[in-house]
Amino acid sequence: MATHHSRIAARAMMAPAVFLLLVWMLVPLILTLYFSTMDYRPLRGIYECCQGFDNYVRFVTSSSFLESILTTLRLVGGVLLITVLGGVLLALLLDQPIWGQGVVRILVIAPFFVMPTVSALVWKNMFMNPVNGLFAHLATALGLQPIDWLAEAPMLSIILIVSWQWLPFATLILLTAVQSLDSEQLEAAEMDGAGALSRFGHIILPHLARAITVVILIQTIFLLSIFAEIFVTTGGAFGTRTLTYLVYQRIIESQNIGLGSAGGIIAVILANIIAIGLMRVVGKNLDA
Amino acid sequence: MGRIILDKVRKAFGETEVIPPLDLTIEDGEFVVFVGPSGCGKSTLLRLIAGLEDVSGGAIRIDGVDATSTPPAQRKLAMVFQSYALYPHMSVRKNIAFPLRMAGMTAEEQDKRVNAAAKVLNLTDYLDRRPGQLSGGQRQRVAIGRAIVREPSAFLFDEPLSNLDAALRVGMRLEISELHKRLATTMIYVTHDQVEAMTMADKIVVLRAGHIEQVGSPLDLYRAPRNTFVAGFIGSPKMNLIGGAEAAKHGATTIGIRPEHLTVTPAGGTWTGRIGVSEHLGSDTFFHVAIDGIADPVTVRAGGEVALHYGDTIHLTPDLAHLHRFDAQGLRIA
Q: Is A184 near chain B, with CB under 8 Å?
């Protein structure tokens, strides 16, 4: 297949797509880089070039920066913990032969199709609202004081909402992994005297390691850019300001495009460091 | 100890009964082979003994104790699976030690037993490899190693050689037979290959559609097959089964004569036919001979280097002492 001609043809045909992708990625990146070196505050009519690293220094030294990083890590870590644990359990459950398996599986996947803004609104108004929310009604029915979720436990609330959205993804990938396990291995372990817990620990979990790695990698990359859920629920208040949200506030609320762009570049660098680090740490799982 | 008694054991999956009530006694130290065409229920029977499937009726007794509802781990049986079922993320050492670890044995005792098993099976150099880095035969030996370290009262083999190539299969067959001689532990072996059954078994159980067709030593089955099914299944190449007028001459519905019990002569003889396909194996030659008045071609064994070719006319004489006669139900006429 790989004759000289076919290679030239392949390159020629791929060129438009590659070009489009490059432009799509490079133009915003270069513009952001360009803005990040400027003092650009449109509402005050300031548009001054060549500030060097001033914006970067100001962004990093501001008191909100470190806190926003910690908040981001808490959010990502919390969601990963819930989705991986819950995903493994759900996958094992869905692997059992049950009545109405097809319908149940579709229902489990459904949250993934709901838009983040919509799901955050639904959770905020229908579940977590301290007066009309379902949780409030439940608490009242049990004679308890309703909790104002988003005011009293804002971080936990957002983690719950995001986990609910990402649980289907984890479950789906882990379910296919569970199904690919050779049943004779489990039977052999059973004959070898391994109880249900030992079988899970010694056979199923190692088999799932690779799928869990994939789930963690992919989810981390997407979770670092969580925005809509925070915007809709707390608006970044009560210690829920992640790095992404901080960048948004700098640009839109403070109308400081230079500062925000610098923050954006820092976020991109940090995300890449985390992604590469993750690949290094868990990527060896993927080789075997 | 490893005396296993099946008492009216029955297995049904929903409406379909795969094993009708069945009785069988397996003596301690015996090498028993379940043989039959695919789908005859031999693997299901093995899984019932192992406890991996629940019986639908009847009882399984191991060493006199009713084990019908005992979980598999407590039956003291070890099983070698067709796919070997090795744990891919563990080294060979850990694979073999797994049942010992599950039994809560100390690390030194585990090491001692694993090393002993590895020595027996020539695996010492491979103990730190993963199953993925081993050849088929080596994986097979690891699976056997994992079974023997437990010192079970009986071994169960589920078509263990079917994933190996022909040369390796012959080698492993010998190794398993030797292992049986050395350990003198009961072994139950499932296969669809009658050669494996004939070469390894003390006792062969021929199964068809969940029914036991015949139980006996390999030579018993070879000399006196109880019916046409066993007659056609045991022996290679298979016995010639001839119906019609030729059978009627001997007062039977079907007569059977093995290829090795036909004498080839240049002239005279009972039957005259024309050679069709001939298979030269070096030591023997098998001719497929078309004979007038007999519907199917008759297979006959001749010496390794006979000067007979396609289309030649030859004369065959059956050895009447080894002629098997079967009635209309396909049962042997004594």
A: yes
Most A CBs within 10 A among B83, B89, B90, B146, hence the mutation to make, goes to B89
Rounded CA-CA distance B74/B115 in Å is 24
**DSSP character for B165?**
-
ipTM: 0.79
Tally C-beta pairs within 8 A across A and B. 58
Q: Most distant CA pair in chain B: distance in Å? A: 76
Which pLDDT tens digits describe chain B residue by residue (334 residues)?
Answer: 678 888 888 888 888 888 888 888 898 889 999 998 888 888 888 888 888 888 888 888 888 888 888 888 888 888 998 888 889 888 899 999 998 888 888 888 888 889 888 888 888 888 888 988 888 888 888 998 998 888 888 999 998 888 888 888 888 889 889 989 988 899 999 998 888 889 999 999 999 888 888 999 999 999 999 989 999 888 888 899 988 888 888 888 889 999 999 888 877 888 888 888 888 888 888 999 988 878 888 899 988 777 888 888 888 888 888 889 998 888 888 7
Chain A residues near residue B50 by CB distance under 8 angstroms: 191
| Residue A187 contacts B where some CB pair is shorter than 8 Å | yes
Residue B251 CB: number of other CB atoms within 10 A? 10
CB-based contact B85 A206, cutoff 8 Å: no
What is the pTM assigned to this prediction? 0.78
Q: Is B209 helix (H, G, I), strand (E, B) or coil?
A: coil
User: Are B102 and A193 an interchain contact pair (Cβ–Cβ within 8 Å)?
Assistant: yes
Q: Is A25 in a helix, a strand, or coil?
A: helix
Residue of chain B whose alpha carbon sits nearest to that of A209: B89
d(CA A77, CA A170): 14
> Which residue of B43, B46, B62, B102 to mutate against A (max A Cβ within 10 Å)?
B102
Two tokens, residue B86: 């090795």
| Residue A48 in contact with partner chain B when CB distance is under 8 A | no
A100 at the B interface (CB within 8 A)? no
By the 8 A CB rule, do B221 and B212 touch?
A: no
CB contact under 8 A, A207 and B89: yes
